[in-house]
Amino acid sequence: MSSIDEQVQRIRSMVLPSGVLHGDPFQVLIKTILSHRTRDETTDTAASRLFERFPGPRELKNAPLEEVETLVRPTGFYSVKAARIIEVARIIDEDLGGVVPRTKEGLMRLPGVGPKTANCVRVFAYGDDAIPVDTHVHRIANRLGWVHTTSPEATESALEAVLPRHLWVPINELLVTFGKQVCRPVRPRCESCLLADTCPHGSAHSHVREGGIVKRHFENQ
Q1: Which comes out higher in pLDDT, residue 199 or 87?
Q2: 35 and 10 share a domain?
């Protein structure tokens, strides 16, 4: 078993992601576009309201722009996002026969779709092997020393080279959950992380003070 496999097993023992669920490709695509720079909870609420009114590309392409703006307003940049998802819906319905592309290249031809969004559709809609790299995945992969990169795009390529293929599909949800609950951007909870003894970042922060004596947090676990 590789060291990455071992670390992933430890992460799984700390967090309990819900598991990869395959959704409707169009709704996964639109929801991911709406999620840019937005909290998941906010995106979920806005997307649910949007799909209640306009569940598919044919309905959304004909939706009034002002109504779509109102529905997605909480996600931020709502004017840009509303116009973009209406255009994406039009392209899918009129040019692609209502079918969302399955390949990364095909998805990235759509307006506003970059590598992360494309790979989210591939993983969460089609169940294909891909690695969606968002800020959590980029940050944690570098913190753990799996990769040494400066951009999410570089992280995706580097992870494809070092990550066992059976981890490609679950790794995004796993690291996103881990990044929210434990390995946070600011003040990560290194003192309660089971990777403290192997993580280059955590090794410098994995001691806790008890009764004036510094001791390893996990020495008795």
Answers
A1: 87
A2: no
Coil, helix or strand for 100?
A: coil
DSSP class of residue 27 equals H
Asked if 71 and 119 sit in the same domain, the reply is yes
SS3 182: coil
Residue with tokens 């591939």: 122
Q: What is the pLDDT of residues 99-137, one digit of tens each?
A: 999 999 999 999 999 999 999 999 999 999 999 999 999
**93 touches 61 (CB < 8 A):** yes
Look at residue 213 and give its three-state secondary structure: strand
3-state helix, strand, coil in the chain (%, to 5): 60, 5, 40
Nearest to 140 by CA among 105, 178, 189, 109: 178
Query: In terms of residue numbers, what domain contains 89?
Result: 25-124
Question: What pTM value is reported for the model?
Answer: 0.86
Quick: pLDDT tens for 43-79: 999 999 999 999 999 999 999 999 999 999 999 999 9
